[in-house]
Specification:
mainly alpha; de novo design (two linked rop proteins)
């Protein structure tokens, strides 16, 4: 190991500074937590897909931030937005199946919608022509 002292701030990617990324990271962690507490059959049916979708929000933000063109950035941010929208029906079914309570549903829904709104504004700010 090198004797050069490095700060973690020296190793932060630009996407990690985005508020939408931070919010999406918290959302993904919450999805994992919620699904761990669900019955095994629900975990089997929804777990992998819902968690993967939450991770796709993050991954597409990260990948989009590294693109060199506005069009490519917007494309990946739109993929994130699509993944966020994809979470809503699954969260609703979890409530309908009584795998989560109303408070958990409402919290996840509000967080997801907030992320989607932030992503939509991010795409709009790029102004691809």
């Amino acid at each position: 190991m090198s004797s050069v002292k490095c700060k973690i701030e020296d190793y932060i990617f630009d996407f990690e500074k985005l508020e939408v990324y931070k919010k999406a990271l918290n959302f993904a962690n919450e999805l994992f937590r919620v699904l761990r507490d669900c019955p095994k059959d629900i975990q089997f049916i929804f777990g992998e897909h819902l968690c993967r979708t939450g991770i796709q929000i993050l991954n597409n933000i990260a990948e989009g931030s590294g693109k060199n063109t506005k069009k490519a950035k917007a494309q990946f941010y739109n993929y994130s937005l699509d993944s966020g929208r994809e979470c809503i029906p699954m969260i609703t079914v979890l409530l309908n199946q009584k795998a989560i309570d109303q408070n958990t549903h409402d919290f996840l829904r509000v967080e997801c919608i907030g992320i989607c709104r932030m992503l939509a504004k991010l795409v709009d700010s790029i102004k691809v022509k």
